[in-house]
Amino acid sequence: MEKKLSQMLYEEEGRIKKIDPGLRAQIAGMGIREGKEIKMMTKQPIKGPVVVNVDRSNTSIGLGLADKIIVEVEK
Amino acid sequence: MNKVLLMGQSNVGKSVLFNCLSGGGATVSNYPGTTVDFDKGRMAIDGKIVEIIDVPGTFSLQPKDKAEEVALKMLEGEKDAVVLCVIDSSKIERGLYLALELIEKGCPVIIALNMADVAKDANIRINAEKLEDLLGVPVVTTVATMGEGLKKLVERMKETRSVKIEGIMKSVGGG
């Protein structure tokens, strides 16, 4: 099943399927690329950023950016 | 070589390395137009005093915020500087992303694989010699907080060189 990164639940895991092309170069340096496994660590309230784990490192991403990342999750 | 730029992603130990190399004699200066600070100091390479600059952390050379803009501006403003690219060994993949960007830009680069102790604890083993062969720039393993590898890093600073990204692509077999 596909969902937006911003819609992932706490501790949910998945694989990055698609990143908005305009965003790709911007977040590639954080290790966030298509095909990478990703895990939702924390979601901050009031439209705050999400914290995700990629390659054993935590990175926070603004909710607006997280909206433009599509993740393939199980079930 | 009269200037060394310390570049790397945030939280990889640039400032610790900076304080080790410059003896902690850092003066903090403010870059005009921003609130982002960088540190300047001096160190000796082969008995010659060179300036060393602690650049704000940047994930990539496509700036996303003010601090990264400063980093990029400094890099472009210091054409004759060599770049000491600091990488967190335990997060080597994303570190190499920035290193490759710097190489692609034509900067003379030396790589410090810092936080080697953290990588070791996480059971990550890195073949620094192989990496050096592939990249064609000096790669030195360091633990800045313990002072490990720093002597070697300074010794090899003069081997810093610009390499063509095409050559690297060829040696790793990428397209």
| Fourth-tier CATH superfamily name of chain B | P-loop containing nucleotide triphosphate hydrolases
Structural class by helix and strand composition of chain A:
alpha+beta
Low-pLDDT runs of 5+ residues of chain A are: none
Task: Kindly report the spatial arrangement of strands forming the biggest sheet of chain B.
Answer: 2-3-4-1-5-6-7
Shape of chain A: globular
- CATH architect. name of chain A: Roll
Instruction: Indicate the CATH class of chain B.
Output: Alpha Beta
Classify the helix fraction of chain B into a percent range: 25-40%
State the separation between the terminal residues of chain A, measured CA to CA: 6 Å
Please state roughly what percent of the residues of chain B sit in beta strands, choosing from under 5%, 5-15%, 15-25%, 25-35%, 35-45% or over 45%: 15-25%
Alpha-carbon Rg of chain B, integer:
15 Å
Structure notes:
- The complex is a heterodimer of chains A (about 80) and B (about 180).
- Chain A is built from 2 helices and 6 strands; from the N terminus they run ββαβββαβ.
- With about 80 residues, chain A is of the alpha+beta class.
- Chain A has one domain (about 1-75): Ferrous iron transport protein A (FeoA) (SH3 type barrels), CATH 2.30.30.
- In chain A, strand 4 and strand 5 form a beta hairpin.
- Chain A is globular, with a radius of gyration of 11 Å.
- Chain B has helices at about 15-20, 65-75, 90-105, 115-120, 130-135, 150-155, 165-170; strands spanning about 5-10, 25-30, 35-45, 50-55, 80-90, 110-115, 140.
- Chain B is globular and about 40 Å long.
- Chain B has 7 helices and 7 strands; from the N terminus they run βαβββαβαβααβαα.
- Chain B has a 7-stranded mixed sheet with strand order 2-3-4-1-5-6-7, with helices on both faces.
- Chain B has a single domain (about 5-170), classed as P-loop containing nucleotide triphosphate hydrolases (Rossmann fold).
- With about 180 residues, chain B is of the alpha/beta class.
- Chains A and B meet through helix 1 of A and helix 3 of B.
